[in-house]
Write a structure and sequence with these properties.
about 325 residues, alpha/beta, 2-enoyl-CoA Hydratase, Chain A, domain 1, seven-stranded mixed sheet, three-stranded mixed sheet, 12 helices, 10 strands, about 15% strand
């Protein structure tokens, strides 16, 4: 009887959770059908003064390690430096962050950040992009590289810092920079193009399933997942891959003319020191070290644009996280 009682309570709790989830999902669907999930396209631009962060960390460490008299002197000196900075016109370094995925989805924020920076940037200023990407879709990374070209076109110095990886589409972006700095074990290169897909045609035939495809234009579809691929289609698809690779190489050559493309445009990648030998990078250095040094003579501003998601998207995200915890 005790077992049956506990089992009944378990079933009751489970049923309650299931009903609650169904009610929530039903409500979300109804609201979405009424248009309640329309996105709000207004985003938020956050500006972070990195010099203040560095000064704050320095003072915190001094407070923990210096005697009171020395600490008081350090604070006095810091105030004097702050006043001097306020009176003098210093160059500015605008710091952007790009963390790329397969679709280069971060380009949506990058374009807003670049636009914001270009409204105030002067020729003596600098833009640093902390770039991390292993590449992805050609058109997505092509647009991302074009956004960085906007900075070069305004005659504003552009530095790209690679702490982990800038390969394939990531390097397509990086090569636009006036200067590329890379951590000692950062990955650079992979100047190549790849496309791959499975083909289920034999499986469909084995189970007597027909697959029909209709096209207008001989090469509207060259290879397919379910149809029977032909040698002619494969040859045409390979031509398209080679043409894309040629565009990639031409773009890199335009912006880093000293590169030996026969050596580096093989699809291979190299770690920091090896990449430096092949002139894929200009200096071995982390972004943190570069910015810390720059803070002595420049004001550093990290610029981040955050798109405002539709409330329905936020609700679904929170709901899925809550269900996962349950």
């Amino acid at each position: 009887m005790e077992f049956l009682s506990e089992y009944g309570m378990f079933l009751a709790k489970t049923a309650t959770i299931v009903v609650a989830v169904l009610v929530m999902v039903g409500g979300i669907v109804m609201l979405a059908a009424r248009g309640g999930g329309e996105p709000d396209h207004r985003g938020r631009l956050d500006i972070r003064h990195l010099n203040q962060d560095y000064d704050g960390m320095a003072l915190a460490l001094k407070a923990a390690t210096l005697p009171k008299k020395a600490l008081k002197q350090a604070r006095k000196e810091q105030k004097a430096r702050d006043k001097q900075h306020d009176k003098s016109a210093r160059r500015r370094v605008f710091v952007l962050n790009f963390h790329g995925d397969l679709r280069a989805a971060a380009v949506a924020s990058l374009r807003e950040e670049v636009t914001a920076v270009l409204t105030v940037a002067q020729p003596e200023d600098e833009v640093m992009v902390r770039l991390e990407s292993a590449g992805g879709l050609v058109h997505g990374y092509g647009l991302a590289a074009a956004q960085l070209l906007r900075i070069r076109d305004r005659r504003v110095k552009l530095t790209v810092a690679v702490d982990k990886v800038a390969a394939s589409g990531g390097y397509l972006m990086a090569c636009v920079a006036d200067r590329i700095i890379a951590a000692p074990f950062a990955i650079l290169g992979s100047i190549g193009v790849i496309a791959q897909l499975p083909n289920f045609n034999r499986l469909l035939k084995k189970h007597d399933i027909d697959y029909e495809q209709f096209m207008a234009g001989e090469y509207k579809r060259t290879v397919t997942l379910f149809g029977e691929n032909t040698d002619k289609g494969r040859h045409k698809f390979q031509e398209e891959i080679e043409a894309t690779h040629a565009l990639f190489k031409d773009f890199v050559k335009t912006h880093r003319p000293r590169l030996d493309l026969d050596q580096v445009a093989t699809g291979e990648y190299w770690y920091g020191s090896r990449a430096l030998e092949r002139q894929l990078a200009d200096e071995l250095r982390t972004s943190d070290d570069y910015l810390l040094d720059a803070s002595a003579s420049a004001d550093l501003y990290e610029v981040t644009y955050t798109a405002k998601k539709a409330w329905l998207t936020r609700l679904l995200t929170h709901t899925s996280e809550a269900l996962a915890r349950v």
